[in-house]
Amino acid sequence: MPPSRPSSVVPAITDSEWVIMSEFWRIGEGTVKAIMPALEGSQGWKITTVQTLINRLVQKKALGRRKEGREFIYQPLVNESQVTHAASRSFVDRVFGGKLAPLLACFLEREECNASELAELKKLLSEKEKQS
User: Fold this and answer.
1) Is residue 25 within 8 Å of 79, Cβ to Cβ?
2) Which residue, 82, 75, 83, 68, is CA-closest to 26?
3) pLDDT the model gives residue 15
4) Distance CA 42, CA 39 (A)
5) pLDDT tens, the chain, 132 aa long
6) Measured between alpha carbons, how far is 21 from 88 in angstroms, rounded to an integer?
7) Contacts for 83 with CB less than 8 Å, ≥ 6 apart
8) Reported pTM
9) Domains in the chain and their CATH numbers?
10) 93 Cβ contact partners less than 8 Å away, ≥ 6 residues apart
11) 110 CA to centre of own chain
């Protein structure tokens, strides 16, 4: 697992870049060829598209690389939870003015929520309340 980075330096990544990062989070490290089978099937992307996205992620310092022989080996420099939190925080700030209650209200009013999910939300809120 990569060292923790402060959230201020966690790069913003696009939806397409997220697909690439998900593959590297899944395998840990590898070559472009290592992730191509999953991406050809699920995305229909060609190797040039994947390489372009990987190069962007290297420039953003989301992926690192080292050369072994004639190939580059890529590995995540940020972990999935860091990027997920940064993206979630950005969304909440942008859409809900930084407030979590309106986000939850929006989903609870408009989405189906089963008893198990409601119990999980109650448990999370209760644990958070105990921490405060």
Assistant:
1) yes
2) 75
3) 94
4) 5
5) 444 444 457 889 999 999 999 999 999 999 999 999 988 888 889 999 999 999 999 999 999 999 999 999 999 999 999 999 999 999 999 999 999 999 989 988 998 889 999 899 899 999 988 998
6) 16
7) 10, 11, 13, 18, 21, 62
8) 0.79
9) 7-80 (1.10.10.10), 99-132 (no CATH)
10) none
11) 25
Measured CA distances, 8 to 11, 16, 77 (Å): 8, 22, 14
Among candidate residues 77, 70, 26, 32, the one with its CA nearest the CA of residue 50: 32
Per-residue pLDDT at 3: 44
Dist CA 34 CA 26 (whole Å): 11
Segment (H or E) for 34: helix 32-42
Structure tokens at 89: 């925080």
**Cα dihedral sign for 94, 98, 102, 108?**
positive
At residue 41, the pLDDT reads 80
